[in-house]
């Protein structure tokens, strides 16, 4: 238990202060352990933890560390741990030379005292370790994570757009917002800009090749992962792969995602019979694996071989690598597609395969009958509530759920509570991904680069600056908003005619769709409401809006890198802010039409022209 003849210095303060010397006394190891415990406790708390013991990466140099007192808007994103003073009062028994009284001559009593000191030393060391881990955890710098706040010179101001100050900008502009009156027609009542010449129209069936299907090479089973968009893309890519391999596709299963936690089946979300019937001329689709094929694997799905393919795989890869494996296995291949499923198949594929992918996305896949009915009812109710703007309304898809904020690693104005909740959410859903060695979290750069989800407050300010006043009907599609009472209140104040699925649909209508904690059913119905809106501010893919509206997405897509600079300026004037927002709106209008680049860098799921649509002359 003793420390031995240790005379080395610990720390820069010299031997008189911190040197631990052994004593030629019984129990010297215990006293040394106690001293070490006290020393470690004080050092760990005074130096902000024990990064030199528990961190996989060295702490930043002192001149690059964050200031000792940071606000909740500091770039590092970690709240400041206030200094902690730990006072250890030790009643040292009398004895010469600093030894323990009674240690000589009374071995029994000395052993008991020594045991107590050992326990004290162990407890102090444990407390020191726990305190250091807590401080490092709250500071966000352990586990190989470098927090970018430490990369900025101490005391240096954050670059424009690095810090969330939108709530301060709203406080500054709100009186002018309320005092100003619209000087031009309501944006929803103005005619939609149209490009002269030809317009885009659906023409997928003209591009599809129809021929008698040859005998099937086997069954293709896939598992779709992610949210609604990712699942949809995986299904369409699976249709294309099944056509390439001349395989029979089994209607996809949905993976129980750790974020969505939705247990829906394919037929719960999509019209399964319509999907199978629409594709019957192009590929074979069955609802489940036939009994004669399943019996070969003892009715155990885990016995079915599985294969993962590379991202952005070409047609030749599937024909040369995957098809032989399918034929070798006989009749079944379990084919798991990864999360980013639009990468599983190259964006540039033969025209007939691309057309089939278009057909699957825009024609074969449609929502189930209950979801379509709910969506239609919600649209009708929204139109009736928009009488002040001729039945026209704006839809907004807010991505301000806890998992989105946690994944973005952005910092808002929630202080230490927000920091803890975001860290817990990251660990709950991604288990250590953000604490891997070498991982750098840079909240400031994320915000400057436009990677932070817009708050409801920011959405309201932006729409207000674009000219949408409090007579505008606004539909908000979202999951569970993080800290909704705080963040949704300003948006409701700016747009009192705000509606959500909970206000448009009755509890009885929504109850039948709540199969999971977040439920993709409600999101599916909201997609219909968004598709029918006159304007959309959305992170929903606008592919269906382009497909429905002759190639024009009618979607407001602001440059968030410009937005953050405006939202980070509490001294900005309302007239300048409004002018900047209207410029963003006009830019979105001009970019409403777009054609895919010839190199195929943009997928058909983002821009359906020209692969899925044809140009026709205006009448």
From TrEMBL:
Superkingdom of this protein's organism: Eukaryota
CDD domains: O-FucT_plant
Single Gene Ontology BP annotation: fucose metabolic process
Keyword Transmembrane appears in the UniProt entry: yes
GO molecular function: glycosyltransferase activity
Entry keyword Protease: no
Alphabetical UniProt keywords: Carbohydrate metabolism, Fucose metabolism, Glycosyltransferase, Membrane, Transferase, Transmembrane, Transmembrane helix
TM spans (from-to): 30-54, 75-93, 120-147
First and last residue of the signal peptide: none
Family: Belongs to the glycosyltransferase GT106 family.
Designated name of the protein: O-fucosyltransferase family protein
Protein's organism: Oryza glumipatula
């Amino acid at each position: 238990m003793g420390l031995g003849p240790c005379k080395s210095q610990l720390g820069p303060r010299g031997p008189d202060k911190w040197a631990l010397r052994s004593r030629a006394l019984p129990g010297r190891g215990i006293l040394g352990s106690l001293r070490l415990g006290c020393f470690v406790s004080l050092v760990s708390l005074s130096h902000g933890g024990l990064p030199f013991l528990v961190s996989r990466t060295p702490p930043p140099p002192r001149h690059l560390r964050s200031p000792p007192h940071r606000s909740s808007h500091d770039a590092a994103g970690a709240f400041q741990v206030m200094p902690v003073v730990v006072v250890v009062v030790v009643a040292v028994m009398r004895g010469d030379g600093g030894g323990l009284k009674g240690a000589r001559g009374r071995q029994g009593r000395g052993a008991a005292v020594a045991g107590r000191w050992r326990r004290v030393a162990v407890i102090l060391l444990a407390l020191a370790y726990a305190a250091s881990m807590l401080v490092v955890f709250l500071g966000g710098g352990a586990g190989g994570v470098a927090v970018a706040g430490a990369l900025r010179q101490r005391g240096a101001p954050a670059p424009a757009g690095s810090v969330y100050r939108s709530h301060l900008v709203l406080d500054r502009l709100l009186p002018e917002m309320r005092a100003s009156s619209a000087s031009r027609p309501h944006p929803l009542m103005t005619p939609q800009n149209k490009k002269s010449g030809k317009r885009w129209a659906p023409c997928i069936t003209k591009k599809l090749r129809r021929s008698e299907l040859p005998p099937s090479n086997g069954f293709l089973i896939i598992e779709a992962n992610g949210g609604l968009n990712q699942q949809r893309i995986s299904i369409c890519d699976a249709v294309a792969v099944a056509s390439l391999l001349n395989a029979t596709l089994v209607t996809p299963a949905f993976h129980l995602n750790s974020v969505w936690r939705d247990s829906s089946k394919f037929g719960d979300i999509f019209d399964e019979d319509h999907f199978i019937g629409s594709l019957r001329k192009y590929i074979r689709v069955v609802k489940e694996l036939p009994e004669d094929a399943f019996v070969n694997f003892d009715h155990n799905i885990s016995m079915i071989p599985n294969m993962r393919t590379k991202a952005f795989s070409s047609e030749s890869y599937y024909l040369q690598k995957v098809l032989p494996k399918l034929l070798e296995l006989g009749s079944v291949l379990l084919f798991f597609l990864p999360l980013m499923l639009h990468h599983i198949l190259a964006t540039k594929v033969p025209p007939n395969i691309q057309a089939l992918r278009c057909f699957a996305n825009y024609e074969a896949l449609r929502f189930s009958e209950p979801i379509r009915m709910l969506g239609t009812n919600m649209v009708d109710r929204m139109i009736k509530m928009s009488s002040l703007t001729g039945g026209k309304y704006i839809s907004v898809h807010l991505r301000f759920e806890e998992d989105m904020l946690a994944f973005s690693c952005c910092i808002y104005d929630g202080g230490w509570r927000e920091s803890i909740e975001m860290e817990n959410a990251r660990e709950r859903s991604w288990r250590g991904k953000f604490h891997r060695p070498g991982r750098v979290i840079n909240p400031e750069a994320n915000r400057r680069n436009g990677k932070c989800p817009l708050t409801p407050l920011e959405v309201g300010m932006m729409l207000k600056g674009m000219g949408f006043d409090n007579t505008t009907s606004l539909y908000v599609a979202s999951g569970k908003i993080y800290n909704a009472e705080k963040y949704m209140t300003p948006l409701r104040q700016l747009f009192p005619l705000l509606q959500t699925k909970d206000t448009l649909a009755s509890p009885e209508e929504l109850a039948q769709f709540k199969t999971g904690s977040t439920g993709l059913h409600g999101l599916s119905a909201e997609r219909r409401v968004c598709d029918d809106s006159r304007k959309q501010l959305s992170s929903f893919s606008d592919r269906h809006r382009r497909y429905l509206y002759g190639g024009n997405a009618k979607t407001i897509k602001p440059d968030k890198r410009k937005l953050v600079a405006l939202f980070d300026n509490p001294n900005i004037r309302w007239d300048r802010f409004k002018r900047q927002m209207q410029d963003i709106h006009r830019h979105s209008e001009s970019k409403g039409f777009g054609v895919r680049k010839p190199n195929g860098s943009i997928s058909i799921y983002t821009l359906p022209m020209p692969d899925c649509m044809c140009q026709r002359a205006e009448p």
